[in-house]
Amino acid sequence: MSAFYREKVLSVQHWTDTLFSFRATRDSGFRFQNGQFAMIGLEVEGRPLLRAYSMASANHEEELEFFSIKVQDGPLTSKLQKIREGDTILVGRKATGTLITDNLIPGKRLMLLSTGTGLAPFASLIKDPEVYDRYDQILLVHGCRQVSELAYGEELVAKLRDDELFGPLLSEKLSYYPTVTREPFRNRGRITDLITSNQLFTDLHQGPLDIETDRIMMCGSPAMLEELKVLFETRGFKEGSGNTPGHFVIEKAFVER
């Protein structure tokens, strides 16, 4: 158990029957880059029960925040969804992950493409002043099945727009595009289709996909990630890594989950 910090749950918010977020204390020794994840979980019968979670909080914040699904028969989330203020969670001491800006070739527009709780690492990244220094435009896309599932992201962006520091940055550089697939909403459709048809860019009054200027980060459902990877690679985009920066990066930690 020495590989983990023991952190105290400070608050829990249930957004829908299937989504919740929670905040916890943060050990002063825990370091991470915005966009990374750590193994977090609970101690069950004396042993750690863990899965990978992106930090939704930025690395300059004093508390940790996580955004999670609820899986009724999930080994961890069936228990984690019942946590309350004052409970203890385990946080792995080492953060890692591919969704960091150094893994991308320099560009002008950063596209953050997410579905479901794949929004979490981008919640961290849009609170990173360095990201706004690196890019002229930041496009945050969040795809869900139902409108209610967008609530966490909509509140996140609304709070940042009211923030003294980030408000001016967001108004100048951030475009937020929530979209749903199963209910009426102002934006409808799967992310892949919205990019292929150029509907995404038309709605935002921005130029179409451009390999010279666009850099992409992706996190979400396995089907979405695979479709987008094929879409970008057929247009000449190359995947980046810690060894070789590229045009796009994918968070693989959640692909098999």
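Second entry:
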Amino acid sequence: MYAEERQKAILERARRDGRVDVTGLAAEFDVTYETIRRDLTALERHGVLRRVHGGAIPVERLGFEPTLNVRDSVMTQEKERIAKAALSELPDEGAILLDAGSTTGRLAEQLPTDRELTVVTNSLSIALTLTPRTNINLMLLGGRLRTRTQATVDAWALRSLAESYVDVAFMATNGISADRGLTTPDPAEAEVKRTMIASARRAVLLADHTKVGNDHFARFASVEDLDLVITDQGLAGGLADELEAAGPEVRVV
């Protein structure tokens, strides 16, 4: 087995079990402890695992919030497919909202050039992506900028959202589960996300499978508040049915 194949299997095991240990992995793959330690170090450098004593934990299970750059380097192919699938949810004309996030950022990159759209966003990085686009009427929400996520939050952003109404809100989340709903580590971002959903005719969540089943500190919506969830084929069996039972359509791409 090549190192890349072994590291992919290690990451899948960590996400499934919540943790991996060096001893167990060395025995499973019939390699030395040092080989496994090198694998874990490589995965940590990619931002998908965090080394702990004797093993590693997937970043989705940790209490800290990864930066946008770290999140944008993870699950890249899956996020591209999700963003491409979301294009079918765009209106022919009108207004959409793009929440701050790595997958919504990829949707911004793929927005069509053959129609006029008003795009409302609280993401500095998305705004910079769309600035050169002459067919986009760009509305950047003001407020305090969280450098970790490049998202604007607090009263200025909330005030603008309260006075807006869009056709579709394309949302991001750190975690989603049928029981807990949609969650994120920061309460200020949670409040903005909650107001975004309220300001939209339809709410579409773009979330790769690592977000499903994870919970974070601040809850901003119920699953039933969504109209559609677009995720990838890595979603564990049964989880799509659990989410659909709560209300939204789930599209696996």
